[in-house]
Amino acid sequence: MLNKIGILMKICISMILAIMLISCASEAPAQPPAEIDNAEVNFSNDNLGLQIENIPEGIRFTFDNIPEDVTTLFINIYEGEYNPAQWSDVFAAVLGPRLDELKVTKQLVCPFVKKDQQYAISIELERNKELDPASKLTESIQGQNGNYITNNIDLKLNDEQTGVALSAEPEFSVPVEYGSEKYEYILLFFPDESSSVSAGIYSGNELSCLFFPETTNVIKEDLKEQSSKIEGDFPAYVAAVCNINYKDIWWMLCAAKTEEFTLSL
Questions:
Q1: Which CATH class is domain 40-142?
Q2: pTM exceeds cut of 0.85
Q3: What is the DSSP letter of 96?
Q4: Euclidean distance between CA atoms 92 and 195, whole angstroms
Q5: Residue 208 DSSP SS3
């Protein structure tokens, strides 16, 4: 236990790109049909041959080929412009049996889409636990239909800047299937203009969590083990993320972010 509300903490620290991997579970509710204006984007990539299009349920990804030696397929989706140093608005890591299935069906759907929202999408492949830079694809598409948060939510820092609290539970346009750890809070700071370091705190169903001093101490220890000389005052923010299962793929959907503040290490 790290504080009085009881949180289970799992730290994942990575320069530039922070990724949280979660195993698969059961199928989520199907989305209702809707009228759409299909838009399609084709990417040129020798490994993937990726096509993205709007469908009633959200955005569909169709791959010409996913190489057999790929162990994880990462999807990062940003509202607006692509910025890999920031925490993405939607994230999924496809691996295990679900990836094996995807290599056969070559299609998956991201349901978390707002109408008329412009999205930047990044796809990356991992082979033998190492990202393959040559596999990276980045493109944009305007969303047409999907499931989205309908209420306005704020994520506020407490006065001591040691924790955060959501103003309300997220409400979705279509019911979702949460994981056992419903929310995760991502503390992210920027050592320089082109990189970021993040730590994730699983908080169950709680609308609040503390990240100081326990989480910041773990960050310090981890950076020390990596012989990093990162120390001082850095711009930072916290993102509140929903862990949601859709058709045996776990998606991390950002519900809200705090305003920027100064993190001292």
A1: mainly beta
A2: no
A3: H
A4: 21
A5: strand
